[in-house]
Amino acid sequence: IRDNYATIVNTFVRGGIDFYGKELTIRNSYVEGGYGWWGYVVSRAGSVIDIADSTIATKSGVTPDRNNGDGISPLGGARVIARRVLISGTADGMKMSSNSVIEDSVIVDLAAVGSIHNDGIQIMGGSNITIRNNRIAINQPQNFNPAHHNAALFLQPLGGSSISNVQIENNFLMGGGFALRFEGNTTNIRV
Question: By the 8 A CB rule, do 51 and 72 touch?
């Protein structure tokens, strides 16, 4: 999608969404990935993904891999606002960056195959991030595989970046070798 402002409402999307504009709004929709594209909902630097009351999942019978597996992938620090979203069957649930929010959402049953190491939410840089009232269960305890399941919530600043001012409130976090994993330059993280 190359329009600056796009809205998707009450829609079943096969194959994912690749957004190049300024603001993408998704409401009451189902995004089915697993068709060979490397992300399910992808946006570029300077954009906003505003998604609510929607599902992001992998096509039945398909196993995602590291190259086509993020439920929400805000490239270059794009902002994400996610409310009441179900993400299931993807390699990673979602990435987050500055001024992003996820609330009242569920990330469950991530795919554990190949070289994937699953993260429910991964943050690689940014500030002013809120993660509130979510259920993030990347695997069931009986299915834990240390080769694949990393963390329900992984803060890992990359390339000299930092992560600060993150509020993690009233979440259920389960699965992986770590429920919470913080590395590197992470400051003012409130759990």
Answer: yes
State pLDDT tens for residues 73-107: 999 889 999 999 999 988 889 999 999 999 999 99
Residue 16 exposure: Cα atoms within 13 Å on the Cβ side: 22
Please list, residue by residue across 153-179, b when 16 or more beta carbons sit within 10 angstroms of its beta carbon and e when fewer do: bbbbbeeeeebbebebeebebbbbeeb
The CA distances from residue 128 to 59, 70, 164, 168, in Å, are 33, 22, 7, 11
Per-residue pLDDT for 165 more than 60?
yes
CA distance 188 to 54: 31
Q: Is residue 5 scored above 60 in pLDDT?
A: yes
Residue with tokens 């690749």: 18
- How far is the C-alpha of 70 from the C-alpha of 19, rounded, in Å? 14
Q: Please state, in angstroms and rounded to a whole number, the distance separating the CA atoms of residues 92 and 165.
A: 23
Calculate the dihedral angle through the C-alpha atoms of 167, 171, 175, 179, rounding to the nearest 10 degrees: 30
Backbone angles phi, psi at 67, to 5 degrees: -85, -10
